[in-house]
Write a structure and sequence with these properties.
The protein has 499 residues and is of the alpha/beta class. The protein has two domains: 270 residues, Aldehyde Dehydrogenase, Chain A, domain 1, CATH 3.40.605.10; 185 residues, Aldehyde Dehydrogenase, Chain A, domain 2. The protein contains 16 helices and 23 strands. The strands form six sheets. The chain has a seven-stranded mixed β-sheet with strand order 15-16-17-14-13-19-20, with helices on both faces. Helix 2 packs antiparallel against helix 4, helix 2 crosses helix 7 and helix 3 packs across helix 4.
Length: 499
């Protein structure tokens, strides 16, 4: 019998034996390793109620108290780094080193949130009128929700909840039902760090749980990362119910390679950015735009590097790329290689026949490379979210910029060039939220904010960094007078002026 995972509510496991159940797989073996309860609306209401009850006392905690808990939580994460990475490897499938890096990048947001006393400072103006001062403060919202994807089961939630909790909110996390165990362990580490019960809670589920959270009257704000169709649903539903929403959607990240680029550098970057974590990254490069004749040199260089990649279980230290998260997802991604060939693309490297000895039932797909892809092909239009890299040919820098800007997604992009002028023009004209210059995956550090443009973002606020602090707080301006003991001024109905 496989173990049934628990929700984590008010600092304790909440077992829900009666709930519908989902299967959690080890992608490297194809075996079901545990089951996850899928919460109904009543369970969601119970969890939100716990967070609501914890809010009043947590919002009144001092900044020093919150900071001490955050520092302690950061040390808990550091002390359990390999354990958290192993949980990710066992349910997502990415290699151990990649999972360690994911947790470390999440820890950087915790470190950023430790500076919350400075980050929430307001402004003060003395004598805006005679004997009158004015100042601004920022206050927490209440119960806030994070709905997060399978591809970064530790890092993406940590884009959200450290900042939200530091700002004085209470948090309900609904992780992906495909790899939720690391979220439960993180909840336990919060408890061990001294976070009061009810401030951080984990509830598992599918669309029923999501929709219950989106409409719940005690939820003040929702943060989401996932595909564009679901991001649109989350944004529309939650805003219709009066909630603040940041919903990050899908991506089709382009890497433009100009003729003057260092081809070896660009090839290394393309392989790393396309096939790391089996391409299951929202910032993965899925389309290389080769300008001029550089494609004739770049494609063979990429193919040569692909031949040396080692694909295998994430627990094997020699593996560079692991399996995909589910069998259905593997089959869907592999289908794009067939479709691409049928639509006229040249299949340079076909990874569909990959066999991993001793793990034949795993969800394996080797790295794939398609050349001479055109914008009308499905392999270019769709967010594939797997190890399939398309190469599109462009005649000029102008054509490459127009191609990227015409794409409905605007998450991340990169340009490889030796020209400062060309790079500066690219960063100025490109309609994408995150831009790399000779950097293939331009994920901002924690003290900047992460987010795209166009169909990659619904709402106007990105996650973590300064925009995260503003998202999880609301402003209040106070105008104050402290009269002396002299008689009060005569009553007047005039509009107040600054005299």
């Amino acid at each position: 019998m496989t173990r049934l995972l628990s929700h984590h509510v008010a600092g304790q496991p909440l077992v829900d034996e009666a709930a519908r159940r989902g299967e959690i797989f080890d992608p490297a073996s194809g075996r079901v390793v545990r089951h996850v309860p899928l919460a109904d609306a009543a369970t969601v209401d119970r969890v939100v109620g716990v967070a609501r009850d914890a809010f009043d006392s947590w919002r009144d905690s001092t900044l020093a108290q919150r900071t001490r808990v955050l520092f302690a939580f950061r040390e808990q994460l550091a002390g359990h780094l390999d354990e958290l990475a192993a949980l990710i490897v066992g349910e997502h499938g990415k290699v151990h080193a990649d999972a360690v890096g994911e947790v470390q990048r999440g820890m950087e947001v915790v470190e950023f949130a430790c500076g919350i006393p400075h980050l929430t400072k307001g402004d003060f103006s003395e004598n805006v009128s005679t004997g009158v001062d004015s100042y601004s403060i920022r206050q927490p919202l209440g119960v806030v929700v994070g709905i997060t994807p399978f591809n970064f089961p530790a890092m993406v939630p940590m884009w959200m909840f450290p900042v939200a909790i530091a700002c004085g909110n209470t948090f309900v996390l609904k992780p992906s039902e495909k790899d939720p165990s690391v979220s439960v362990r993180i909840a336990e580490l919060w408890h061990e760090a001294g976070l009061p019960d009810g401030v951080f809670n984990v509830v598992h589920g599918d669309r029923e749980a999501v929709d219950a959270l989106l409409v719940h009257p005690d939820v003040a704000a929702v943060s989401f990362v996932g595909s564009t169709p679901i991001a649109r649903h989350v944004f529309t539903t939650a805003t219709e119910h009066g909630k603040r929403v940041q919903a990050l959607g899908g991506a089709k990240n382009h890497m433009v390679v100009l003729p003057d680029a260092d081809v070896d550098l660009a090839a290394d970057a393309a392989v790393s950015a396309a096939y790391g974590s089996a391409g299951e990254r929202c910032m993965a490069i899925s389309a290389v735009v080769a300008v001029g004749d550089v494609g004739d040199r770049l494609v063979p260089a990429i193919a040569e590097r692909m031949a040396g990649l080692t694909v295998g279980p994430g627990t094997d230290p020699t593996s560079e790329m692991g399996p995909l998260v589910t069998r259905e997802h593997r089959d869907r991604v592999a289908g794009y290689v067939v479709t691409g060939a049928d639509e006229g693309a040249e299949v340079v490297v076909d990874g569909r026949d990959l066999v991993v000895d001793g793990a034949e039932e795993g969800f394996w797909l080797g790295p794939c490379l398609l050349d001479r892809v055109t914008p009308d092909m499905a392999v270019y239009r769709d967010e594939i979210f797997g190890p399939v890299l398309s190469v599109v040919r462009a005649d000029s820098h102008d054509e490459a910029i127009a191609l990227v800007n015409a794409n409905p997604y605007g998450n991340g992009t990169a340009v490889f060039t030796g020209s400062g002028a060309a790079a500066r023009r690219y960063q100025h004209e490109i309609e994408v939220g995150m831009v790399g210059i000779n950097v293939p995956i331009p994920v901002p550090m924690a003290y900047y904010s992460f987010g795209g443009w166009k169909d990659s973002l619904f709402g106007d606020t990105h996650v973590h960094g300064p925009e995260g602090v503003h998202f999880y707080t609301r402003g209040k301006v106070v105008t104050a007078r402290w009269p002396d003991q002299e008689p009060a001024a005569p009553t007047t109905l005039y509009f107040p002026t600054s005299d």
